[in-house]
Amino acid sequence: MAASRMAELALLIATNTANIDTYLASKGLPTPSFDASQPAHLLNDNKLAAARRAVLEATDELHALMLGPIGILTSPSVRASRLHLLELGAKTDRNKWRQHNFMISLQAICRFGLATGFPTGKDQATFGEIASSSGVCESQLRRILRHAMTFRIFCEPRKGVVAHTAASKVLAENTLMREWIGMVSDEMWPAASRSKLWPDGLVQKSQISRQGISRSELQLRGTKIHQGFNIAHDTDKTVFDELAKHPEREKRYAAAMTWFSTGPGLEPTHVVGGFAWDSIGKGTIVDIGGSHGSVSIALAQSFPSVHCIVQDQADVVKVAQTNLSLDLATRVAFMEHDFFTEQPVKGADVYLLRWILHDWSDAYAIRILRALIPALKQGSKIVVCEHILPEPGTVSTYQERASR
Ligand SMILES: C[S@@+](CC[C@H](N)C(=O)[O-])C[C@H]1O[C@@H](n2cnc3c(N)ncnc32)[C@H](O)[C@@H]1O
Q1: pTM
Q2: Which atom of ligand 1 lies nearest, measured to the CA of 238?
Q3: Where does 104-173 sit in CATH, by number?
Q4: What pLDDT was estimated at residue 199?
Q5: Homologous superfamily of 261-385 in CATH?
């Protein structure tokens, strides 16, 4: 039986790593490590260039194979890893860092519907065909898609002809996933790129130049709110207030959350199994900031006696209500409520906060919790569902990176 691509790659990595090892040992040089004593240019020897490139390329491909199509589309580490490949071929420092643009092609694919831009019924299309169906100029489209192809999103089986890879096919077929990528690339990526470390509370003038904050940014964040999001999206509102002003963006955010909840370890089943919900009998659960209700729906399906009230912003609950199946309509209700104001549902058995507090700094989190106090009866529970950061060094760096 012919070796699989995975096995070929593993062999390439093993062979070339051994060659590098032998060469370094023969020169009396140290083996690569992350130690501060490691010489910065240890592997820059021309004699190592071919083996080093082979290892980097093979590990990149194997890594992408292990991620699978969804991992390729969602893993920032895949993109970051490209930096190293470029460094190898870099002639100037400028070349080295051109991977700052890694999200551009993915953003364009979602924004212009390129993954769904093939003529109906065809699984291949020319750049020109996709350009005319998406309304993007052909030369830009070609550049964008060829950039995406370097991440194994689309391929070019013949010059000028575009076909799906597993990753682009997922994008074409999964609407919620497209909403997630669109939301990440349009909302979160620009915000992340503008994030800075701010001193606690208000920025002191003396710290402005040290932190490289421009005058216009300073004017913008002349308010209490000064997150990357405010600068990137030119607003002094919080993320959710800003989204509420733009129903399409708010709807996309909610759809993205629904997709996110399908990821391994993030499914509502963990909430279902993580608390003794049957102990409340016919009681009431208030799902605060419950978005389109994926958690409440899972709870109502698993515990036929409980009643759930999903609270969220006005437009979010409006959309969610219309999508609720009839069989759950008597036990899952949606309610507009701003969680910074007093909780209107008094005496519920559980007030659930899944992935709410993590969006807010402590001062806001305290306000959200305080707003519950007037509603609590003896024995009411507040269930908080959040990712707990591992202690440094207790899990692999790879795992820890995602958490941090
Ligand atoms: C990270 S999402 C979590 C959604 C849901 N709990 C889940 O686990 O999938 C945060 C939610 O809080 C909602 N939200 C933000 N500000 C709010 C406010 N002031 N009052 C009520 N809901 C709010 C958002 O609309 C969004 O649905």
Answers
A1: 0.81
A2: 16
A3: 1.10.10.10
A4: 57
A5: Vaccinia Virus protein VP39 (3.40.50.150)
